[in-house]
Amino acid sequence: MSEYLLEMRGITKSFSGVMALDGIDLRVRAGECVGLCGENGAGKSTMMKVLSAVYPYGTWGGVITWEGRELQTASIKESEAAGIVIIHQELMLIPQLSVAENIFLGREPRVLGGMIDFDRMFVDAAKLLASLRMGYINVAMPVSNYAGGEQQLIEIAKALSKNAKLLILDEPTSSLTKNETAILLRLVKDLKARGTACVYISHKLEEIVEIADTVTVIRDGKFVGDAPIAELTTSDIIRMMVGREMNNLFPREEHPIGDVVFEAIGITCIDPENSARKRVDNVSFTLRHGEILGIAGLVGAGRTELVSALFGAYRGPHSGEVRLDGKPINVRTPREAVKHGLCMVPEDRKAHGIVPGLGVGYNITLSVLDDFAQGGLINEAHEFSNIGDAIKKLRIKTASPLLPISNLSGGNQQKAVISKMLEPKPRVLILDEPTRGVDVGAKYEIYKLMFSLVREGMSIIMVSSELPEVMGISDRVLVIGEGELRGDFINDDTLTQERILTAAITPLLRAA
Fold first, then answer.
1. Is residue 390 included in any domain, yes or no?
2. Residue 171 belongs to a domain with what CATH number?
């Protein structure tokens, strides 16, 4: 009998004649965590959809062996019955239902007559969570009462309630805090110790190094190789992912910085749910021509609220003044901001950056449709010429400009959103977490693009939760803490991560 719980051999999958998977292999032992790595668009999620029968048997080629027998599942239900459960990047919970109802949704215990046995369901849910060191969660409370990290853990509990032998985690920490991530990684280690196998997909290689036993790398739909994590360095994994050496993850380039082009004066944002609380409190700063201004701070510090107010997208009361070239501009809506030459790539691309069912190309041109209008009609030839140039410039991987953007990988969706915001040719570009959920290769391309843009004279404001990214890319760093501006630092040899973090947690610290 094979030593492997799961073997995928020579897996192929195509869409409209375009090969998404081309002979990929994957092997997983019981109690083993395999880190599945690859750039955005490499085929990781497609491969897991094959395994979990989102793409049923017969729609793909190759062989899957599960517990020594060939697996031919025709539905997700059959796959879960076999013990293979996938947790998608977007949580599949119903906020209004209780924790227990979400865990046993569709599999509720019943009493005679078919009524739901709520007492038993609550007891079973509480026992399950206690076994996962999550006994503090009240199973009778609505899921919406819990933070994103706790909801992710509830999603895992839901999967384990289905007697999962293999758990597939697709970018599970993309929206979690550092503390929430630590709890999730501890849980994965506990599951390994209990014999549950895991396939862990993440762009955060430090997580892969911490919990994976083996790493499998795929690139452009092809199998590159696998090896025990003990035999690999982070540089090895990156080289396998991108097919080239990347000795410098932050390709910092010298570029001229000119005079002040943009000013924010006394920006204040009131919490829309609590009028007594200020999310941003009287923040002022300047931005120079050709400058990359990084904004750092802890989660919840008010960074996103600040840039949303600048872009006219903050949903609560806010005040302050915005100046471009020394002249006040009135920005009440994102549309007005774009007209003034101020564009923004939002933090949450799925909620605020894309129209999921719309084609990739149409998403890109949404910000400049008026440019293609003639007599009330869109000149499609002109529009598609523009789309082709945009896709080529940012190297967006898509089978067709008409393919719904929701079919693209996260990194390619992000490139499309950036492309959309570059179409109006802004003077100032705001990037809120521009590399969140993006692989190392796509990050590198985004950094190179940023430096190309500032060399051409654009000015960039970048919000990032990753301090190495802030320090690797920015010319100057603003630090926000509890809605206040707590630091304004030139990014020179004297600036350290410790200095930034100290400013973030220390009230009223100013640059010397």
1. yes
2. 3.40.50.300
